[in-house]
């Protein structure tokens, strides 16, 4: 309390002094918002939640795809057919209407496929009697070889007979389950034919009006985004069509070479086995070895060990010819993926989608990488003079550190 001359007494309150402690006084507008965690932790947290959002989006996409997988399979088959037959349709369209050219190309492709199946069936039917005798002799030779004792283990004919009886008993015991499983597959057969019909229907319009459909889609987008979508779509289709056509050409070449080798070695079922090699070419890294093993087993059972070895060597040489000559020549610059990426893609596709995933994985990765490569902007690489300047700047620092 203080007295002022000529006035009343005033009560004054003195505010307590604020002690400033080093490190304790902070800006209340900033503390607790930006500086409550280290910079590296904030950066890591920002990247982490973004990665979680991306992972969640991927899971949602795969879940949706799983529910409509037959639809996507049909579209994928239609795109493959369109990529393979597009050059023929463009050539035929020079002298006839586009729809007529599409019909001629599709009918020709279907007749080729049916002719291939007929050739395989006729080969099996015409060689069946001879095959039965050859397989009986081959299995007898294999059994004699196993009983000879030249291997670390020994298998007797009694053991082989016991294995056959065990297999027969298992089939008789589980015959009801096998029949019910076969009956449950009836729906799958219907789904397969439905998928093929839908793929054929889509392929007709992709070949006849594909350009018009793509133009219509671009016109539905805002004008500022059309050029980006046009560039991405062109890059993706260029890569996908090149991959599809190149794979078909390589598969036909491998199947023809396999048929020649199997015919020269007089291996039975050379036509079905060459078709198996043709189908295996569509599955990178897995299809070729699987077809080779099957062909070697047939050659072993029919003609003996040396025939199986020669078949394995011949198909392996075909694989080397395909990897070192056909792939660079036919695919060219359209599909350039490192073998490690192919192996990872095929493995991941097989784990996620089985055989279908293994077939789709590589073209899907190729298209995504092609679009990314076309849309991204790379910084110019350093010249040799810039690298020399960097080395000169680093050397004095290293010398100063060593002196300390």
From TrEMBL:
UniProt keyword terms in alphabetical order: Cell membrane, Membrane, Transmembrane, Transmembrane helix, Transport
Pfam families: AI-2E_transport
Localization per Swiss-Prot or TrEMBL: Cell membrane
Membrane topology classification: Multi-pass membrane protein
Disordered as annotated region, ranges: 381-404
Entry-linked InterPro entries: AI-2E-like (IPR002549)
Keyword Transmembrane applies: yes
Highest taxon above the source species: Bacteria
Transmembrane segments annotated in the record for this chain: 51-79, 99-122, 189-208, 243-262, 269-287, 293-319, 340-372
UniProt keyword annotation of Amino-acid biosynthesis present: no
Family, per entry: Belongs to the autoinducer-2 exporter (AI-2E) (TC 2.A.86) family.
Protein name in the entry: AI-2E family transporter
Taxon lineage: Bacteria, Bacillati, Actinomycetota, Actinomycetes, Micrococcales
């Amino acid at each position: 309390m203080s007295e002022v001359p000529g006035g009343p007494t005033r009560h004054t309150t003195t505010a307590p002094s604020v002690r400033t402690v080093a490190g304790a006084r902070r800006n209340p507008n900033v503390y607790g918002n930006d500086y409550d965690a280290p910079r590296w932790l904030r950066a890591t947290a920002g990247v982490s939640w973004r990665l979680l959002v991306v992972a969640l989006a991927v899971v949602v996409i795969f879940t949706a795809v799983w529910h409509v997988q037959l639809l996507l399979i049909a579209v994928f088959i239609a795109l493959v057919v369109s990529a393979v037959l597009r050059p023929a349709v463009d050539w035929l369209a020079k002298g006839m209407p586009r729809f007529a050219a599409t019909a001629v190309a599709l009918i020709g492709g279907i007749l080729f496929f049916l002719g291939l199946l007929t050739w395989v069936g006729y080969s099996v039917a015409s060689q069946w009697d001879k095959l039965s005798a050859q397989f009986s002799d081959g299995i007898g030779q294999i059994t004699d070889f196993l009983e000879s004792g030249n291997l670390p283990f020994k298998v007797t004919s009694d053991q082989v007979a016991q294995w056959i009886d065990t297999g027969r008993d298992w089939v008789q015991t589980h015959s009801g389950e096998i029949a019910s499983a076969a009956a449950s597959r009836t729906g799958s057969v219907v789904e397969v034919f439905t998928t093929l019909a839908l793929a054929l229907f889509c392929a007709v319009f992709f070949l006849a009006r594909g350009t018009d459909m793509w133009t219509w889609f671009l016109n539905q987008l805002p004008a500022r985004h059309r050029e980006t979508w046009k560039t991405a779509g062109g890059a993706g289709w260029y890569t996908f069509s090149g991959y599809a056509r190149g794979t078909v050409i390589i598969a036909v070449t491998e199947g023809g070479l396999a048929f020649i080798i199997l015919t020269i070695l007089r291996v039975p079922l050379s036509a079905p086995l060459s078709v198996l090699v043709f189908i295996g070419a569509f599955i990178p890294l897995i299809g070729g070895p699987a077809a080779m093993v099957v062909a070697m087993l047939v050659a072993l059972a029919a003609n003996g060990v040396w025939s199986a070895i020669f078949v394995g060597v011949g198909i392996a040489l075909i694989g080397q010819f395909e990897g070192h000559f056909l792939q660079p020549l036919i695919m060219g610059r359209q599909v350039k993926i490192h073998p490690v990426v192919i192996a990872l893609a095929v493995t991941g596709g097989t784990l996620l989608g089985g055989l279908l995933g293994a077939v789709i994985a590589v073209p899907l990765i190729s298209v995504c990488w092609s679009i990314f490569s076309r849309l991204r902007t790379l910084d110019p690489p350093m010249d040799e003079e810039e690298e020399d300047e960097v080395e000169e700047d680093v050397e004095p620092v290293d010398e100063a550190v060593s002196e300390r």
